[in-house]
Amino acid sequence: MRILKHTLLCSAAALSAASAAQAADLPVKKAVPIEYVRVCGAYGAGFFYIPGTDTCLRLSGRARFEGGYMTSYSRQNGSNVGDTSGYQGRMRINLDARTQTAYGTLRAFVRLDAGSRTGYSGVGQSGTQQRIGQAFPALGIDQFGRASQFVNVDKAFIQFAGMTAGRASSFFDFYAHDFEFAGATLGSDIASTNLLAYTATLGNGLSATISAEDPVFRRSVIFSQTNNPGGVTVNSNLVNFAQSQSPAEVFIGYTGGVPTRYSFVDVIQRSRMPDFVGALRLDQAWGSAQVSAAVHELNVGNVANGAGTGTGSNISIPHASNSYGWAVQGGLKINTPFIAPGDALYLQGAYGSGSQMYTGYCAFSGCYSQNPTTIQGQKFAQYFNDATVNPFTGQMEQSTSFTATASYLHYWTPEWRSAFFGSYGEMSYGSGARLAQGAAFALSNPAGANSFGVNAVGVPGTRFFQLSEALRDTYQFVAGGSIIWSPVKDLDIGVEGFYTQIGVKNGRVIDRDKSPTAYANVAGINNGTFVPRTTTADSVSTFRFRVQRDF
């Protein structure tokens, strides 16, 4: 037994030695070092280094619920007419990447906004966003015009050595509805446009910027009387859905000095020259100030048919020369911590010719359409055309517009704050614009025509001409306020209400709500057998409730 035990112990020792020798010959596996995410403090809170790089990244975002109510005065046929409520859920994702270089900070910023919207135009769904391809309408029987999905590449720009390139906010803008939910006050607010800009820092908070910007997002339709002749209704607005041409009449033949032959030019604008924007800005502890200016090209096509329609000798109508609109704006922000910490006052005014989108006159009613109608059961529509084509000369005649806005933010306590805001604006056309378009209408429509589209000016000297809404000089007034509770950091729960009034500056117009068949009974209006109801103004009250969390 002793011999057996000794033998087993020796064998075990030998096997252990052999195993140790074999183990010594095998490669040793080392653990991969763990690279922990490091905080980057160079650019403020929330930044961290992307592992393996010297680039700092900040991820942030937003979630929002919003419900709204707008008074309605009509239950007539038509998309949205009679709707009073709307709802939406929105999301936002931000990525901010920065790297320090020998030329300064290299920054790339991207922001994606998306949402689901239902209900009345405004909070529920937006014809404005659909018109520029940022929202997609539902097609169901009860959903069409009342539901849409919203997706927008709101930001995607690079900043380097004073250059900004990509999709960003226009450098023309200043206030941009900073204190509002709905953004109903009149003023320029192009949060998303494509641009290439250079900013020079001049010292002491002063900077100067020159920017070439995408003109598509600043275009208002050039007037056309035959625009959407069928009166197709989409999202409660007479809009030009997927329209490939928009004709405007021009005279190409005369008999005895009277126009007797006409043709058309297509007034859908082509993309040619960018808009040029310049801004001078001052930022100080007391607040900010900015003066900005813009130049905006308007263009139309050639005469569609040289032979035209009608009698009389043909004449050579000049090709409509490009026309350049312009706008100027001044803005002032004053911090008022002596009233309460965080308080601030914005004052802003803009004036433009042939550039309505720069003055922001369409902010409430809706942009990118000739005559939108945001108010449910609206009595008449405003016209937002940048220009008309004079049928006698074939040349463009620009409209003018101006807006003025004031907005004040006040903190009652660190958790409770309110905004109070108001604006006023006017839009005007040349004194002869309606007469010239009326002359074109008289020639291009049969004398016995009884039904005209809402875009028709009518025949000068008739009762319908006096009452039609097309190309009327209008004004708009907005006033409102909000109360917001922030029980914890970056959480807002609040409600906003505002009142909007639109009106004509002179005369009266047909009340579409009280006389919905008026535009189909023009002969009766002119001979006195049909007397439509008329109005000088329309108004609406709107309320929104919002819950929003930023992170």
Architecture overview:
The protein is built from six helices and 28 strands. The N terminus is likely disordered. The strands form five sheets. The protein has a 16-stranded antiparallel beta barrel. The protein has a four-stranded antiparallel β-sheet with strand order 16-13-12-17. The protein has a two-stranded antiparallel ribbon with strand order 10-11. The protein has 551 residues and is mainly beta. 10% of the residues lie in helices and 43% in strands. Strand 12 and strand 13 form a beta hairpin.
In short, what is this structure?
This protein has helices spanning 2-25, 127-131, 356-359, 433-444, 463-467, 522-527; strands at 48-49, 56-70, 85-101, 104-119, 135-137, 147-160, 163-168, 193-203, 206-213, 233-234, 237-238, 247-255, 258-266, 275-284, 287-298, 309-310, 313-314, 323-335, 344-353, 387-389, 396-398, 400-411, 416-428, 474-485, 491-504, 509-510, 534-535, 537-550.
Residues in helices, as a percent range: 10-25%
- How many E strands? 28
**Strand-residue proportion:** 35-45%
| Termini Cα gap | 78 Å
H/I helix tally: 6
Radius of gyration: 31 Å
Structural class: mainly beta
